[in-house]
């Protein structure tokens, strides 16, 4: 069985060869959104604006119909379904059955991206997604990993953040990566000079 990808201190990324169905699961919203951006960026640039459709977990049947529809502009399309809470095993039998049928015979022209806070990995449909390499676990970094996470994300924004400053930000924020990302975005704006270049902290 393929091991699930884990998105904590490092980037949460979809598999290099994207499976037909990807499940992004975990409480780290920043990591899930990061992995989702990776799926979007894998689409041809000229169709990204029209090749992505978004649905709620309560609209699974519509989402699956969209996934089975042949893309108008050719190439792959990305179908995003948020709040698939029924994968945690509480109710939603019909939705899980519909998803299982789709996973058994997915559309060749679409990537179905499911986003959930929790999923029961004992469920047959989740096991099948994981076996195909489509499970991405988005966990928050541990407290001791957070300073490193902050420095890495700062570097991606062009900020040379000293270790002491990264540790101070991590101490203030804890393991809330979404909040940390927003604060780093603000910092990235503050450290630009009038020409748009980065100033060293």
Descriptive notes:
This protein is of the alpha/beta class and 201 residues long. The protein has 2 domains: 5-137, 3-Layer(aba) Sandwich (Rossmann fold); 143-190. It has 7 helices and 6 strands. It has helices at 29-41, 60-68, 93-104, 124-131, 143-156, 163-173, 177-190, and strands at 5-6, 21-25, 52-56, 77-82, 110-116, 135-137. β4 (77-82), α3 and β5 (110-116) form a beta-alpha-beta unit. It is globular, with a radius of gyration of 19 Å. The model has no long low-confidence stretch (mean pLDDT 85).
Summarize this structure as a short list of keywords or feature phrases:
14% strand; 2 domains; 6 strands; 6-stranded parallel sheet; Rossmann fold
Task: Write a brief structural summary.
With 201 residues, this protein is an alpha/beta fold. It is built from seven helices and six strands, in the order E-E-H-E-H-E-H-E-H-E-H-H-H.
* Structural class based on helices, strands and sheet pairing: alpha/beta
Any idea what the CATH superfamily of the largest domain is called? P-loop containing nucleotide triphosphate hydrolases
Query: What's the N-to-C terminus distance?
Result: 46 Å
How many domains, as an integer?
2
Helix content: 40-55%
- How much of the residues is beta strand, in percent? 5-15%
Summarize model confidence as the mean pLDDT. 85
Q: Which geometry do the CA atoms define?
A: globular
Number of helices: 7
Parts with pLDDT < 50 across at least 5 consecutive residues: none
Enter the CATH topology name of the largest domain. Rossmann fold
Name the helix and strand elements from N-terminus to C-terminus, one letter apiece. EEHEHEHEHEHHH
CATH class of the largest domain: Alpha Beta
Largest sheet: 6 strands, parallel
């Amino acid at each position: 069985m393929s091991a699930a990808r884990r998105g904590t201190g490092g980037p949460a990324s979809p598999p290099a060869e994207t499976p037909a169905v990807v499940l992004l699961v975990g409480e780290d919203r920043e990591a899930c959104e990061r992995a989702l951006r990776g799926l979007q960026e894998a689409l041809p640039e000229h169709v990204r604006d029209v090749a992505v459709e978004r649905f709620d977990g309560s609209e699974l049947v519509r989402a699956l119909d969209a996934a089975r529809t042949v893309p108008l502009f050719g190439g792959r399309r990305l179908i995003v379904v948020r709040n698939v809470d029924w994968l945690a095993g509480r109710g939603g039998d019909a939705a899980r059955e519909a998803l299982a049928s789709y996973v058994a015979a997915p559309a060749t022209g679409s990537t179905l991206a499911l986003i959930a806070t929790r999923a029961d990995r004992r469920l047959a449909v989740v096991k099948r997604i994981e076996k195909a390499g489509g499970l991405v676990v988005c966990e928050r970094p541990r407290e001791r990993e957070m300073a490193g996470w902050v420095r890495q994300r700062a570097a991606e924004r062009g900020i040379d953040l000293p270790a002491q400053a990264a540790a101070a930000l991590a101490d203030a924020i804890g393991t809330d990566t979404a909040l940390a990302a927003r604060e780093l975005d603000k910092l990235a704006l503050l450290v630009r000079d009038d020409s748009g270049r980065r100033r060293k902290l």
